[in-house]
Amino acid sequence: MIIGGDGYCGWATALHLSKRGYAVSIVDNLCRRSMDDQLGFNSLSPIKGIHERVRKWKEVSGRDIDLFVGDVCDYEFLGAAFKKFAPTACVHFGEQRSAPYSMMDRTRAVFTQTNNVMGTINVLYAIKEFAPECHCIKLGTMGEYGTPNIDIEEGYITITHNGRTDTLPYPKQGGSFYHLSKCHDSANMLFCTKAWGIRTTDLNQGVVYGLSTDETDMHPDLVNRLDYDAVFGTALNRFCIQAAVGHPMTVYGKGGQTRGFLNIRDTVRCIQIACDNPAPPGEMKIYNQFTEQFSVNELAAMITEAGKKVGLNPEVITVPNPRTEMEEHYYNAKNSKLQDLGLEPIAMRGEFLEGLLKQIITYKDRVDQRLILPGVNWKESASVAEVIAK
Ligand SMILES: NC(=O)c1ccc[n+]([C@@H]2O[C@H](COP(=O)([O-])OP(=O)(O)OC[C@H]3O[C@@H](n4cnc5c(N)ncnc54)[C@H](O)[C@@H]3O)[C@@H](O)[C@H]2O)c1
C-alpha cells in the first residue's frame, strides 16, 4: 500500500514495485494537486490525473494498481482501505511535505502538523487493528536532525553519561513546522512500535532529484511531477529549471548549507529494499536515505558545468536567505545501512545532470517565471489573509 502514491516519490515507487510483481495499491487524497490550484502553481511536466495514470499503467504494463482516493486522517476511510487491500507493507509518503508551505501562516502550520501527525497515528492504529503483521515504512527527512556540530548517526546514538551508557534516538532539531511534524511522527512511531510490537522502518530521506525512472518513461502519460516553484521545488530540481530558462540560480545567503541528496531512481530502490527487509516486531529500523552530500554552492557549480555542455550559460545570484538556518556549518551524516542491504547509488556528477537539463529544456515553455523567486520568509510567517493578499 503506497500512501501518497499520486505524489513525486509515491508515483515512481508504485510503478517500480508494480513492475517487479508486488501487488500495489495507491491511497491518496490528491491534496497536493489542490495546493497547486490554491497557490497558482503547476508541475513543470504535464502530469495526468490519477485515474488516467493508473489506466495507462494497466495498458502499458498489464498490471493493476488498486486506487483508494481519500484522506488518511479519515480513519473510517483508511480502515476500509486496509480491510479491502490487506497490505503486508504500507509505505507512508502521504504528508504535506514542504517546509516553506508550513511556514506560510498559522493555518498552514497547523494543517501541516495535523495532517502529518494525525495521519501517521491513524496509519499506526490501522496496522494494529487490521493488519498487525504489516510493515510500516514511513518517510521522514534528513532535516529532522538539523545541522549539529557532530556526525549524524543513522537514527540512534550510543551515549555514555555520568558513567552509564545507553543507545538512544539521535537528537532531532527540526527547522520548520514541517520538519517538526516529522520529528513528532518519529517519536509516535517508536512509541507504538514498542507498545504494540508492530514492525516499523523510519526513512530519513535526503532531498530527492530527477524526473525519470524506467517505469515513468514507459509512456508520456506516466510522467512524474517536477516542482520548481519556491514552495514545493527542491534545491537541485529548481536550480536546473532556473538554468534551463535563463534565470540565474538563486543561492540563499552564503550557500554553504549542506544536505544529503539522492536520485529518484535510488528512492524507489531504497523503498524496495525496505519492503524486502521488514523490521522484526517491536523494533523500529532507521535508515538515512541519501547517497551523496553537497552544499548549495557545490550544486550551483555542478549545474553551471553541466549547463555549459548542453549549450546553456548558467549564472548564479545570491538572494537573502528566507529561511532561518546556518549558512556555514559542519555536516557529516552516516548513510551505510541501505548500501549494506544492496543499494548501489547513482552519482549526481557527469552525464546525469546534462540529461536532466536536456529533459527540462523540452518543457521550458511551461515555466512561469513568477514562481521562481523565494516567496516565504520564516520570520514573517503571517496570517492567511496577508499571504493571500500578496
Ligand atoms: N521530495 C523530497 O525531496 C523529499 C525529501 C525528504 C522526504 N520526503 C518525504 O517523502 C514523502 C513524499 O514526498 P513527495 O515529494 O513525493 O511529496 P508530494 O507532495 O509530491 O506527495 C505526497 C502525496 O501525499 C498526498 N497526501 C498528503 N496528505 C495526505 C493525506 N492526509 N491523505 C492522503 N494523501 C495525502 C498528496 O496528495 C501527495 O500526492 C513526504 O512524506 C516527504 O516529506 C520527500
TrEMBL record:
Q: Supply the SUPFAM superfamilies for this chain.
A: NAD(P)-binding Rossmann-fold domains
Q: Which domain of life is it from?
A: Eukaryota
Q: Provide the GO MF annotations for this entry.
A: sulfotransferase activity; UDPsulfoquinovose synthase activity
Q: Which InterPro entries match?
A: Epimerase_deHydtase (IPR001509), NAD(P)-bd_dom_sf (IPR036291)
Pfam families according to UniProt: Epimerase (PF01370)
Q: The NAD-dependent epimerase/dehydratase domain covers which part of the protein?
A: 2-288
GO BP: cellular response to phosphate starvation; glycolipid biosynthetic process; sulfolipid biosynthetic process
GO CC, alphabetical: chloroplast; membrane
**CDD domains from the xrefs?**
SQD1_like_SDR_e
Which family does this protein fall into? Belongs to the NAD(P)-dependent epimerase/dehydratase family.
Q: What is this protein called?
A: NAD-dependent epimerase/dehydratase domain-containing protein
Q: Which organism is it from?
A: Ostreococcus lucimarinus (strain CCE9901)
